Amino acid sequence: RKEVEQDPGPFNVPEGATVAFNCTYSNSASQSFFWYRQDCRKEPKLLMSVYSSGNEDGRFTAQLNRASQYISLLIRDSKLSDSATYLCVVSLNTDKLIFGTGTRLQVFP
Amino acid sequence: GAGVSQSPSNKVTEKGKDVELRCDPISGHTALYWYRQSLGQGLEFLIYFQGNSAPDKSGLPSDRFSAERTGGSVSTLTIQRTQQEDSAVYLCASSSDYVTQYFGPGTRLTVL
Q: Is B54 within 8 Å of chain A by CB?
């Protein structure tokens, strides 16, 4: 079983739609959680950290469920520029990151 | 300011040759990481340098892979006797707080 699992997609949604991605992780000792974004043929960039209480950054909301070992990312009012691959990332001790294979999002006009 | 830089951006080599990939981290970042990403795959951790501590080499796939970090700054990833399965994008990242990792643009390695 992979340490971090994601649905690879692609998720094809129209502009303005709300879309949610899920991710599960296998190690219950994981301490830190993140969503990174990777554009085609570019390097990953941190989108947001995920906190136990859930957190929001503009149109993006991240949730963590430690009991189910499950992380989610919700994007509201999708923009064309949101088209990218979204990487779920966990860490045991905040240094070595373990990346999921990513979920591809394509927003169309 | 300047971000993480990597060179070369592309490298094509023949099977069996050695290659060196370079990473210049963001100035002042004490943590440096190497990953590789194969087509359609996630990022695979290779090695991690933290300050003056011994590096975490647990992700290196074989003894053909090695890395150094000189003077706590520039790092070189060396792959000896390259194989076709080594073809991938090799990404370097640096961090100052062990939370946010800043990635370089990567080196695309093709082994013929």
A: no
